[in-house]
Amino acid sequence: xxxxxxxxxxxxxENAFVVLAEVNALVRQGKDIVSFCIGQPDxxxxxxxxxxxxxxxxxxxxxxxxSAGIDELRQAAAAYLAKMRGGLPIRPEDVVVGAxxxxxxxxxxxxxxxxxxxxxxxxxxxxxxIYESQIxxxxxxxxxxxxxxxxxxxxxxxxxxxxxxxxxxxxxxNYPHNPTGGLLSRAELExxxxxxxxxxxxxxYADEIYGRLAYAGEFFSIxxxxxxxxxxxxxxxxxxxxxxxxxxxGFTSNPALAPVFTRWITNTDSCASQISxxxxxxxxxxxxxxxxxxxxxxLERRDLIVGLLDDVPGVSCQVPGGAFYVWPNVxxxxxxxxxxDSEAFRKRLLHEAGVAVLADIHFGARVPGEGQHLRFSxxxxxxxxxxxxxxxxxxxxxxxx
Length: 401
Description:
The protein is α/β, with parallel strands linked by helices. The protein has two domains: 6-44 and 290-399, Aspartate Aminotransferase, domain 1 (Alpha-Beta Complex), CATH 3.90.1150; 62-285, Type I PLP-dependent aspartate aminotransferase-like (Major domain) (Aspartate Aminotransferase, domain 2, 3-Layer(aba) Sandwich), CATH 3.40.640. Helices cover 41% and strands 12% of the residues. The protein has 14 helices and twelve strands. Strands 2-8-7-6-5-3-4 form a seven-stranded mixed sheet, with helices on both faces. Helix 6 links the parallel strand 3 and strand 4 (141-146). The radius of gyration is 21 Å and the shape is globular. The termini are far apart.
């Protein structure tokens, strides 16, 4: 029998979808599950976005587009990215539209490293699991930079400096951050840029998909630091800001790499959905009331879930600076119920209390000395948040030894 490749056998995954499948199986069995495991807004896309999608269908906009995207969307995305980042000189030809922001993770690694050459990519840990998965799949070496709870789940720029070698070709930064909700401050980004100034061979992939969901002051991109724009790959998209996860529209900008990313899209997807591109154009250029209302709702939910989790026995929860995730420390809760670690706790919480969350190991190797953590997505109604956290508290109280 023919065998699959080692690369395919070892390819990682995004465990949020694995746990979601487990949750859905339990729901089909009639189980009552409160789920915090999937990271997507629980709102519909704004009405003007929906109308634009329908209009595109009715007008027969069903065919291929240029691989880099329709001109109208590239122009609008360039203006949007520039305005949000202090007036950077982003031109429409610097922007490439893809089927979501996620494919650009692979395109960036493929465009800055060579397979099997020992090239290194530094990425945040814990972090979006596709970073490490794609680094390995692309034949590069993953080098984690650990996020520390004492720093609000950021990292010491000096630690980054120690990790950079002549083989380092790319540094991945994600802020606001998945899974912790942490932010990198302007001062931290400037310190990172000062370190990278000594290593001109290193590109930066700035995953800023949650940029409109930053709650602690005005969003600031590392691309705004003098000397960083040309070497920074800015990644953003429609999914989180306008609740368009299933529409699959991302846009990425870099003046040197835009033509390269365009060729990758030609070789893979051909182009993003034309219908979705016209809808994304409406999202960017239309009223922002719905996006701002979603942001305000997420901020209210953040404050609610943090307060509730802090009252749960054995749980402590920092206030995240952005996105729609909390990353509570459950080290003491694990001890109280006799769970060996956060993953054992997660499984028992699901099957004994009907609450679905993700464990820290779903986002990379556990950081030494940082204890046990869970990820809750608070892209859920206030009622769901209250019921889910109450179930968790009851589970811990009942199981305390």
